[in-house]
Amino acid sequence: MGKSLTYKIIEINMVSGSAKQKEELTVKVNQTLTQDSTGTMVYLKLEAMGVKNIKTDLSVAYIDHNTLQTGFENADDHAFIKSAAAKYGIIYSKPGNGICHQLHLERFGKPGDILLGSDSHTPTGGGLGMLAIGAGGLDVAVAMAHGIYTLKIPKVMNIELSGKLQPWVSAKDVALHILKLLTVKGGVGYIIEYSGEGIRNLSVTDRATITNMGAEVGATTSIFPSDEAVRDFLVRQGREEDYIPFEADDDAEYDKKLTIDLGEIRPMAAKPHSPDNVDEVRNIKRVKVDQVAIGSCTNSSYTDLMKTAAILKGKRVHPDVSLVIAPGSSNILKMMADNGALGDLLASGARIIEPACGPCIGMGQAPRSGGISLRTFNRNFRGRCGTDTAEVYLVSPETAAVSALTGYLTSPDEAGVEKPVVELPEKFAAYDGYFIFPSEKRGNTELVMGPNIKPFPVNKPLPQKLECKLLLKVGDNITTDDIMPSNARLLPYRSNIPELSKYCFSTITKDFRDRAQKHGGGFILGGENYGQGSSREHAALVPLYLGIKAIIAKSFARIHKDNLINSGILPLVIVDKNQYELFDEYDEIEIDNIAESIKNGNIIKVLNKTKGSEILCRFEGSETDAEILRAGGYLNYMKRMEKGAEGDA
Ligand code: MIC
Ligand code: SF4
Fold first, then answer.
1. Which of 17, 213, 346, 368 is 20 to 30 A off residue 28, Cα-Cα?
2. How many CA atoms lie within 13 A of 411 on its CB side?
């Protein structure tokens, strides 16, 4: 049997373990990326580890999320990250340069490399044949410190694409079609590998749109082969030397296979409030639109924005619509300024904002109360746009631009508008004016810590017995946006866990912090896919700060489970899912004999003292994970290991 592309890349980067064992293996991490809203924690942890030099080939610290500076907080965080970048030899990307994933694809991504990023959409890099994985901040700090990442070996799902996209259908519609097929949990435990004749007609940025939204199906990452399209992209970016061809063997072995005929896909939309609530646009009843937002790491490429400009050229945005556009990178904005397309956007009445995540993470441009917003983004969770009562639909740039003209959600193939054709420039702009490259002589750079940067919480070793109240019972697919919401008001406190704790679970209940404080912490009961979505480790650190000891759930999303373990919070999986019904909020819960029970596979009895019932759970993790939990989280575990090593010497 031949090898998948995934295993080929894993094999060339393998440090220890065996891909055949299907358990855990350690790989070399060639590149890392951080962004600012998760990055402050990464660099605080790197500092706490006492790291002198980073071990990756290349690491980049982007500032793209918290770019509104309505107070000193975000600017303090930028200054801190800039000083950390200078101290550790990391490339710093100034605010205004663009969105980490789009920039990384343009300037640094390399076929065959492994990239670890403190953001769940790091898999965007899979569009040019790299294994690009999103992780919690601590894992990225460890990757920088030691140059490695330990991976629970995922299964590989092959999606074979045949046929050709119809006019007006684009990569975003493919991503949404896949979400409809797989749902937000269908990719958990898998790396998705694309193959087939259909991929030949997809450019690198099309592919990146698809791998980007692999995060929404819960996949560890998604990857396309490195072929002529990748070479072409790298040549235009002036980086042909980074090209290496990589593809799976024809007879590669896969754990699951799907086939999709691209020709059958129509313009799609994800309706409120989940990316998998997908239907064809033409099936959705007439939806009047208040806002259209184009951009985000999913759809802010040169091609996406040039298509938008071509659709809007010589026309006016509908009077009831506010059209906002955030380019993916300063290079794209510069090219569009030079070739006149920016002028076409402005003449149509579009609002152009700086290249950044912007409205995608609620950093400005919140819709009006009860407003309808069409967005080319990847997540439409309730409240994420900054307005709890707004309804967000996820669509392609084509659907967004045409709907901005008509004022209604419109299937672009049925609007009688001329279809845009975009020619790629021979050479993409590469000014790199917003990058600060580390200096060779780094000396004693001091970290710049403003008053907004507070110490992060560290857990205590796991006791033998836990007795607490069940503070909250939630349903399936709870997102990290539910656990620790983000918007322009809260994001400035990403370095200030005590302040953030006031808003923990605030999309679900307003009194979670009070409950936790009143009862001295406790447990949470969750449904399937608990912790899906963002990689933010704040969704573990804030519960840790509030005294949460364990999360008992039907299943967990990958990154969040790792973040819980790294924070020393027990993630326990319910063996018989029906038993979820046996516990209710405020029941008194007891777990005894913990150290022994968390050996992988052992049954853990979770006793409900209020009802006299019992749920049987398991801890699903490696022996190292169990050790980390016993020690009270990764940093304590590291200290223990170091002490052990000193003791041995
Ligand atoms: C997101 O899209 O949810 C974010 C904001 O980029 C997050 C990271 C964060 O919460 O800071 C992600 O995707 O990991
Ligand atoms: Fe930024 Fe949105 Fe992409 Fe997250 S999903 S990295 S917030 S653009």
1. 213
2. 18
